Sequence to fold (194 residues):
Amino acid sequence: MTVLTGRLQKIDRRETLRYLGYTKSVADMGGAQALIDGCEEEVLAVQDLKAVYSLFDISRGECLDLGFARTDSRDLAKYLQGCGRLALFAATAGSGIDRLIARYSRLSPARATVVQALGAALIEEWCDKVHASLMAQYGAIAARFSCGFGDLPLSLQRDIFSALDVTKKIGVTLSDDCFMTPTKSVTAIVGIKI
Fold:
């Protein structure tokens, strides 16, 4: 099991705008750029990027054995076709972003919305960096698959948290409904062809 930490110097603006629902046709955005700039500084100041991953062997039989759990997911089986191993990871941007969102939800709904979008872009960029590292080290395939995609149940989160000891390793907790806190957290499966 490997734990990673990181820090980003900026957040992908196009991705942030996409999360905000802006399109390329919006030129001025009514002062949104200045609002985004200010919120970005705050988000970058509280980021606490962490990830944990481990490798597991895959075997197929009546169901798909992922090495840490079994599943009947046909979509995941199709995604892992040709893969003999997988990298399982969990990543978070930290709880500081949730605190900013909560604070601004009371003080400035516009700022809360922008911080939400920046946090979403930040965790995706962090996951992309973790994934790129897995690709470079292990030849992982270029896409990742998460619980809730296709027919892969969200309840598999429980097995992922157990397999990676997510709460202890990176401080993310899982609710009874399988939602993560901090909210800007992701778990993913990445196939490795061997």
The chain has one domain: 2-192. The beta strands are 2-6, 49-57, 59-60, 64-65, 70-71, 85-92, 173-174, 180-181, 185-192. The domain at 2-192 is CATH 3.40.109.40 (NADH Oxidase).
